[in-house]
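Quick start: read one record
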Amino acid sequence: MNDLNDRNFYIFGNTTFAQIFYLFCKENQIEKNIKAFLVSDIKKDKRNRHIIHGIPVRDIEWLKNESGCKDIFFAGKVKTVIDQMLPLLKDVYDGNLYYVSDFVHTIMYSRSMYLGYEDIVNRYSISQDLYETGLLNLKDIQSKQYYKYMPRVSVGYYPDHRIFNNSVRLDELYRHQLGDYSCFENIDEPHEVIYKCKIYMSKSHFDKELTEDFDTPYTETIQVGADLTDQIIAKIKDNTGINISVRNKDYCEMSAVYWAWKNDADSDYIGFCHYRRRFVIDESIINYIMNHQYEAVYTIPKLTDGGMREEFVERNYFLTPEVWKLTGEVIEKLFPEYSDAWKEFGKSFFLLSCNMFIMRRDIFNHYCSWVFAVLKEVDEYYLLQGIQCDNRYLGYISECLNTVYVMKHKNTLKKGFVQLKMLDTK
C-alpha cells in the first residue's frame, strides 16, 4: 500500500461496500488521503449526511472545481458504473475510476474466515502497489469495453484466487467453456432487411405490472399457461395448435418455445425473452446478426463461483440431487455425445440464463429436437411412477441444457452476446 501513502483519492458511495473500503484504508493508515466520499447527488441522499468518519461527502458536480485528486475508487454495482457513473463523470472529471468491489468482496471473505489483510494485499500484488493489481480502470476505453462484455457479476478483472487459478483472466475462462463469441452493442451502418425474425416475449396472467416500458424490435407477446386460465392477455397463446400449455407450471417459458417450434413456420430467426427480462438490442443489430448468418445470440453469461451443480442443487435448491442425476442418465441414454458436456457443465462457472436466445431456424429446430427429447424422458420417468415433482423443474433443467448445448458446439456455433435488461414491477 506504499503507493497510496503519497496519493490523495476519493471513495465513491456511502454504502456498506464503501464503508468497508474506508476501514481497509484506516487499518493501513491511509484514511488521511481520502479527500471525500462522492455521491451522485447529495440532495437526493435521504440520510442527508455531509460528513462520514470526519470526511466530507460531496456530489459529482463538486468535482468541477477541484483538482489534485486523480483517482476514484468505486465499490458498488456494475450497473451503477456503466449506466450512471461514467456518463456523470464525463464532463467533470478527467482522472481514473477504479473498480474495487472484488477487492471488498475479498476483505469481507477474509474477515469471515478470520484472516488478516496481509493475505488480501498479497493477492493483488507482490510489490504491495494497489495500482499494479489488475484493478480495472473504467475510464480507460479498452478496459471499459472489455468489462462491459464480461459476466454480470460484481467482481473485477480477475476472479477469486481461492476458486480459480489467479493467473487466468475471466475472459479466458469464458472462452474455454463457451468458445469464441462476438458482442453486439452498436451497429452504425444500415443493413437491408432480408430475413424474418420473431422474438416471443413470454407473459403469464400472474405477471405484475411493470414500472417502465422497454421495446425490443420484432417482439410479439405470447401468453404462456393459457390453458390454465380463462383470462386472455395476448393475441398469441401457447394453447393453440400443437402445444404443451397445460404443463406450463413445470415447463415454464419452455411452453412458448415448444409452441413456436411446432407452430411458427415462417420465421427465419426465432427468439425468446420474458416480460421482465429483455434483450438490449435494436433493429440494426438484429439485421446485422441475420445478414451475417450468426446462428445464435444469448445474453451475457452469468458467473457463479461454486460450479453449476452447486448453484442449482446445493445452493439454490432449484433441482433435487435425484433430478440432476436422472438428467445426466437420460442424456447418456439418448444423446451420449452430449454426456461429456453435461459432466463438464456441473463443474463449470458460466450459465446462459433465463432460457433467452435468438436462433437461426435450422439451429432452433436442432436445439428443440434435442432439448425436448431430454425433458420428455425426464418427465415421463416421474409421470410413470406417479411422483409429483416441484413446479418449474423442467424449466430449470432446460436452463441448464441451454448452456450444455452451447458447450457441446462451442467450436462450431457462430454466436454472439448482448446485454440483458431486467425490468422492475410495481
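The first strand starts at residue 9 and ends at 12.
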